[in-house]
Amino acid sequence: MKAVRPANVIELCQALVRIPSVNPDGDPGCPVEQTGEAACAKYVAEFLTDSGAEAVLEEVESGRPNVIGRFPSNPSQDGKPKPRIVFAPHTDTVSVGGMTVPPFGGEVREGRLWGRGASDTKGPMAAMLWALHEMREEIPDLPVEVHFAGFMSEESAQLGSQHFAKTHGPYDFAIIGEPTSLKTVHKHKGCLWADIHTTGVAVHGSIPEQGVNAIVKMASLIQALDTDFRQKLKDIGGEDRWLGHSTISLGMIRGGTRSNIVADHCVLRVDMRTTPGLSRAGGALKILTEFVADHDATARVAALPETFPLDTNEQNPFVQRLVDCGAEVTGAPWFCDAAFLAAAGTPSVAIGPGSIVQAHTKDEFIATADLESGADFFVKFLKSWA
Description:
Blueprint lengths: L8 H9 L20 H13 L3 E8 L2 E7 L13 E5 L19 E2 L2 E3 L7 H13 L10 E6 L8 H10 L4 E5 L6 E5 L1 E10 L14 H24 L9 E9 L9 E10 L1 H5 L3 H12 L4 E8 L2 E2 L5 H8 L4 E4 L5 H6 L4 E4 L13 E3 H16 L3
Parallel strand pairs: 3-6, 3-7, 7-15, 8-14
Antiparallel strand pairs: 1-2, 2-6, 4-5, 5-16, 8-13, 9-11, 9-12, 10-11
Helix pairs in contact: 1-3, 3-10, 5-7
């Protein structure tokens, strides 16, 4: 029997929240059968099909597809190819461990819809999908070609957007679904995680003067990173109007094997949030590596996957159309799929209803009024082309 389709954007968001799609990386906080994006992607594909789009599932990893919908488009009056735009939220959520509300309940009370993903980012996705459904008759005659892409894996590694950018881009514009309080995030910081290793010489703990303590070497380096390097980031990357300056957080440290052995190895993991200015000046990894080498020639830096800043020109005509519809431009300290599409040549922004303050929380919710406003906004944006 075919599933009952939602009657409004709130019911659509409830349906999405009630489909577990927890990112399996790390500790998902739920049984394995509740991880992965397949069930959510299938539901979205069916909704897109009912809305007149041609929908396909593209596996990026086993059992973890992107969902792509292409709405029909009639030839333009001048015979020229239409610009292509894509609405692109993500279908995965973070862990549900420690939640104080039923993570897949989708309950509506107190003017809020509760559950994992309600804010990040099944609420924005519902607003986009509902607007596309409402506009299904008008979309073919718009002077733009309209697509939808639901990305897997945004909450870890961003594999879905990277796969899409390589196989389907570039587009003329991408609207990434994130809870931005319906503001147009045209800039956001990038992120570099890196491990810094110091080495020493292990000896018996009773004669430490005969060895070299890697922890002590790291302590000196930490002092430098926490003072001189922070200033260096400001000096090199500058102050961004929307994002401020690049930052470094010293997040994890481990070293040694036993208390009675002088430590011959120590590792510090750092989290750097980077501005476009720092990227233009050589990038976080280069600047960090050079600083560490200058301070301790025997230390080394091992980079983990890096995400890049977003720096879409606020004068881009697509951005200005969003602004004209009421979504003022802003920046964000977090990163999202927009950066990967932009790096592959698609001007991109992030926008959606709901607040980032509620994302990933133990009692995640989105206000139902915000959901309705989000759907209305995306309808307005689409109608602005008519």
